[in-house]
Amino acid sequence: MRIYKYIQELLADEEYSFSLKEIIETTDKSEASVKSELSRLVEKKEIVNLRKGFYLILTPRYARSEKLPIQLYCEKLFKYLNRKYYLGLYTAAKIHGASHQQIQGDYMLVNKTKFGNIKKQNFDIRFFTSTCWPSKNIQPKKSDAGIYYLSSPALTLVDLIRHQTKIGGINRMLATIEELSEELEEGDLIDLLSWYPYKSTLQRLGFLLDELTDTNSLAEILYEYLISIKYYPVLLSPKTSQKPGAAGNKWKVDINIKLEHDL
């Protein structure tokens, strides 16, 4: 089968990506011949070599931007890489409707370390490692290409807070946290509390819910959980050179930065 015909068949089935191995197994051409044909299609900007051996198909709809929405290929990409994943942080927040923060790239959580970011042409994908893989709070969603996975509002909130120093700081995400908290449901929070191990992040979440929102019932669930397991003072913004002092709030959060809301 010709490579171009195979790509058209993929598109007919709403598939927007493929691997080099997949193409070689489908055609009767040599590996060298396949690679040469793929290089020609890359030059014509009909496909993109996203990662070694993995390609994306640029349909006419996306040809001008030379970029595909990550929901159209993330599931197949991570099956190819044999890793667990979920879309998270600002990417998940945007899908959940918290779109105040304009993001240029995409954010994904993976279950193994040493996974390099992708920055190629118009693709900018940042990977973060989850050292404690969620047992709940990962939600399936459907795109034109099928099912993909992203963090629930509760997991998105704690991931944002936990990784704050790597993604612009707490003030950058205040509006996103406020918008995302409107999507937070009791069952989602209770599921999170059943497995989430980072007490300091939960304290910061509780403090911010009190500061930014009217979700008193959800904050109360979080507070009741914390007092049942004991917790200690933490900094709102973690700094290796600073230790938390006395905190004048029930969350025991030392407010060591000035909160500057941009809404």
Enumerate the strands of the largest sheet in spatial order, edge to edge or round the barrel.
4-5-7-6
Please, how many domains?
2
Q: Unreliable runs, pLDDT <50, ≥5 residues? A: none
Percent helix among the residues? Answer: 40-55%
Short summary of the structure?
The protein has helices spanning 3-12, 20-26, 31-43, 60-63, 74-81, 89-95, 153-162, 170-181, 186-193, 199-212, 216-229; strands at residues 17-19, 47-51, 54-57, 85-87, 106-110, 118-120, 123-129, 138-143, 146-151, 234-235, 253-254.
Structure characteristics:
single chain; 263 residues; alpha+beta; 11 helices; 11 strands; elongated
Task: Give an overview in words.
- By secondary structure, the chain is an alpha+beta fold.
- It folds into two domains: 61 residues; 185 residues, no CATH class.
- It has eleven helices and eleven strands.
- The strands form four sheets. The protein has a four-stranded mixed sheet. A three-stranded antiparallel sheet has the order 1-3-2.
- α10 packs antiparallel against α11.
- The protein is elongated, with a radius of gyration of 22 Å.
